[in-house]
What does this fold into?
Amino acid sequence: MTQSPKIKRVRDAIDGVLLLDKPVGLSSNDALIQVKRLLNAKKAGHTGTLDPFATGLLPLCFGEATKFSHDLLEADKTYDTTVHLGVVTETGDTEGAIISSTDVQVTVDQISAVLAQFRGPITQIPPMYSALKRDGKPLYEYARAGITLEREARQIVIHALTLVSYEAPYLQLRVSCSKGTYIRVLGEDIGQVLGCGAHLKSLRRIQVGSLLLADSVTLDALNLLPVEQRFGLLKPVDALLSEFDPVYLSDELAERFLHGQRISLSKAGVEIILETGRKRVYRQSDNQLLGSAILQEFQVLAPERLISTLGA
It folds into this structure.
């Protein structure tokens, strides 16, 4: 008896952004796979990983939104974290073996003085237990093999570092920071300056750019919703571009833009004066997002990433 061939599942072309409240213990990629299945989406991607032990805001991109996911990699982020003073682990968080422990004898005044040292532009050495690659292999693979490599310090910015509460040995902090910041390393460095060492007990991301955890949904809640209501949670593609100024084009200019043509806004009679840099571009007649662009000198608009489903 011959087996009937397996029928390949047909995925839907879905465009938009879903804000997920990632649970503890799940990798960002595994979370993406589950949501992609729940939406039966054809194309999906995330905007930067959260460690499995971390929870909170994980923006997931579908369809055309994946073209703009890089913009959130560059965005500032805000976290709530609990730093466990007096205990140092291999990984800087709860997933690693304990290296050392000591009694904690620090005061709120001492903590406040140390936190002041970490506000503003600082340098930070990326951890060995990270996905940064060396010779095509992530650093955590070297670390698991007992190999420690030299890492170059990187410039980051801690925009805000707030002491929420302190009940020894637990230090509650809220951190707003630039891209590339490792909160694990920040916690370890604070503990080192305090003289007792530290690791992260918990980490929760509450904001990415202008996107907020308050607008997110949990996997459990998403599972319970009827399929059609799941789609209602998707934000539009331009939710990823909200920090960039908008430019509106006539139908004629929109068509030229979608064909990848550079447009001189001043010559085209577009009455708008903007600073150079990244922009989000719309067709004025129907407020349809066309893509992103770089506004160059002399008000020249150069297409960057285009919405292909518009059929230029």
